[in-house]
Amino acid sequence: MTLDLNNPDLMREAALVGGRWIAGDATTGVAVTNPASGVVLGYVPRLGAAETLEAIDAAQVAQKAWAARTAKDRSAVLRRWFDLMMANQSDLAQILTAEQGKPLAEAAGEIAYGASFIEWFAEEARRAYGDITPGHAPDKRILSVKQPIGVVAAITPWNFPNAMITRKAGPAFAAGCAMVLKPAGQTPFSAIALAVLAEEAGLPPGLFSVVTGAARDIGKAMTDSPIVQKLTFTGSTEVGAKLYAQCAPTIKKLGLELGGNAPFIVFDDADLDAAVEGAVIAKFRNNGQTCVCANRIYVQLSVYDAFAEKLAAKVATLPTGNGVDKGIVFGPLIDEAAVQKVDEHVADATSKGAQVILGGKSHALGGTFYEPTILTGVTNDMAVATEETFGPVAPLFKFETEAEVVALSNDTEFGLASYFYSRDHARVWRVSEALDYGMVGVNTGLISTAEAPFGGVKQSGLGREGSRHGLDDYLEIKYICLGGIEEA
Ligand SMILES: NC(=O)C1=CN([C@@H]2O[C@H](COP(=O)(O)OP(=O)(O)OC[C@H]3O[C@@H](n4cnc5c(N)ncnc54)[C@H](OP(=O)(O)O)[C@@H]3O)[C@@H](O)[C@H]2O)C=CC1
Ligand SMILES: O=C(O)CCCC(=O)O
Fold first, then answer.
1. What InterPro entries does the database record attribute to this sequence (predicted)?
2. Which residues line ligand 1 (CB under 6 A)?
3. Which residues, at least 6 apart from 400, have a Cβ–Cβ distance to it below 8 Å?
4. Percent of residues, the chain, with pLDDT higher than 70
């Protein structure tokens, strides 16, 4: 299937391995389909361990030369990459919508969001400051310098096919690292388009490889390699835990952005209309397929009915359809497995007494379209309370006291994002500090931005992406003990 692109070269049916483009074909390649129509968009090569090792070897060579360049020079290349992404925003968004399903406007938003990480880290590249500490002896000084980790392997998911790559690649290249990337099988074309633009921006051959194909083989080659110094992964906690174990023998550094089970709390002193707006974003962004999506919505008893009514009225106005059509807010879910999980969660909740006040079933459009759904009367024994739905289902739980809702919110093995709405300043501080999460949104449903440290605690992962801390995740501190500074 052909897309109507200004720059058709961005939709390349090929992978980039150590500076060498390898074409995919219909006989041996992996088919990529459009979730809105089931139509095959194209093929990428089915690569494995051999090509991954080739990419890692090339990365090792390219990284040395890249790290030796000045930070200002690396920054200029990244800035060109950012400019190219923005100049090609509409084409990149079309590719993203075609393979992932999110509406075009949301896809264009993701391209701008993804590009903002390249812009931010182009700026941060020049600020990898070390420090000098007074020595422990009169003739000594303690120097800390920051150096790139080296070769980084990255594995990324389908829900943000652009931004989850740039949030890793930006700091890696800014720091002076090289990267071998395995994008998600469902959404490789967005990654490949990024590689086309990276080449054009002047990223040297071999510094950035995009290896498509067999996840396990590619992942194993990455984790077994003694050359790879860091693995960065965004995806399910299950796969993240496997990769964590696979990295143990070579003691790699790890960046893990894993699952969440975000609470979204509405206190009775909240601005209810603002809370509804926030819930729509926090719950339904990307059709609920975001690890920071609100998974459990807790509403204080006295405002429960009013909130449920307002939320249902708002969501009912938001149209579902093919993401290329104007005004669409809900695209298809990524695949049949996603629909099945959503269906199971709704069935489990209703079988235990929840009421469906909106949606609750597959959409009349068929395929993987699902009706945005709101459930009331939800209780803690239901699957939606403990498992990440990763779909357009908003389960509304009732609570009575602050202490109760904080305890309920923290009663999970996950700790990524959390949200609450309140106008009481003392409560804002208290609850922000009490939530066991890496991120807390107060009176907002959208917390993601390149300037902020994104990441989780507990089984939601390790490390931070974005912000100045995101650069540190790709740097090692080297301590130099400078002796022999005798008095004159
Ligand atoms: N935290 C987050 O942002 C995300 C969370 N999820 C959660 O995970 C669930 C399942 O989604 P799914 O796409 O299957 O997520 P996965 O964790 O399976 O996939 C994420 C990435 O890991 C790769 N991968 C899978 N298995 C291995 C392996 N053994 N070794 C190396 N790489 C591997 C995938 O490759 P390939 O695509 O080729 O299989 C993909 O690139 C979702 O329903 C959601 O709950 C999903 C995506 C993102
Ligand atoms: O689901 C994810 O891991 C992507 C998070 C998107 C965001 O940055 O908000």
1. Ald_DH/histidinol_DH, Ald_DH_C, Ald_DH_CS_CYS, Ald_DH_CS_GLU, Ald_DH_N, Aldehyde_DH_dom, Aldehyde_DH_Superfamily, Succ_semiAld_DH
2. 155-159, 182, 184-185, 215-216, 219, 234-236, 239, 242, 257-259, 291, 388, 390
3. 300, 301
4. 100
Site to probe by mutation for ligand 1, drawn from 32, 33, 237, 239 as the one with most ligand atoms within 8 Å of Cβ, is 239
Per-residue pLDDT tens digits for 89-111? 999 999 999 999 999 999 999 99
- Give DSSP secondary structure letters for 69-110: S-HHHHHHHHHHHHHHHHHTHHHHHHHHHHHH---HHHHHHH
- Coarse DSSP helix, strand, coil percentages of the chain, rounded to the nearest 5 percent: 40, 25, 35
Mean pLDDT throughout 85-92? Answer: 98
Say what the pLDDT of residue 1 is. 59
Q: What is the pLDDT of residue 486?
A: 86
At residue 159, φ and ψ (nearest 5 deg) are -75, -30
Distance 289 CA to ligand 1 centre (A): 12
Q: Please state, in angstroms and rounded to a whole number, the distance separating the CA atoms of residues 83 and 314.
A: 37
Which ligand is located closest to the Cα atom of residue 220?
Answer: 1
Going by pLDDT thresholds of 50, 70 and 90, the confidence category of residue 487 is confident
Q: Which residue CA neighbors atom 8 of ligand 2 most closely?
A: 448
* Residue 81 near residue 142, CB atoms below 8 Å: no
Furthest C-alpha separation in the chain: 86
Question: Terminus-to-terminus CA distance in the chain, angstroms?
Answer: 76
* Ligand 2 site, residue 257, Cβ cutoff 6 A: yes
Contact criterion met (CB below 8 Å) for 215 and 185: yes
| Residues 433-450, mean pLDDT to the nearest whole number | 98
Domains detected in the chain: 8-258+460-477 (3.40.605.10), 262-442 (3.40.309.10)
From ligand 2's centre to the CA of 408, what distance in Å?
Answer: 23
Q: Name the nearest CA neighbour of 208 among 187, 184, 229, 179.
A: 179
Whether pTM > 0.95 for this model: the answer is yes
Tens digit of each residue's pLDDT (9 = 90 or more) over 298-355 = 999 999 999 999 999 999 999 999 999 999 999 999 999 999 999 999 999 999 999 9
Q: Is 373 in the pocket of ligand 2 (CB under 6 A)?
A: no
ipTM over 0.90: yes
Residues serving a catalytic function are 257
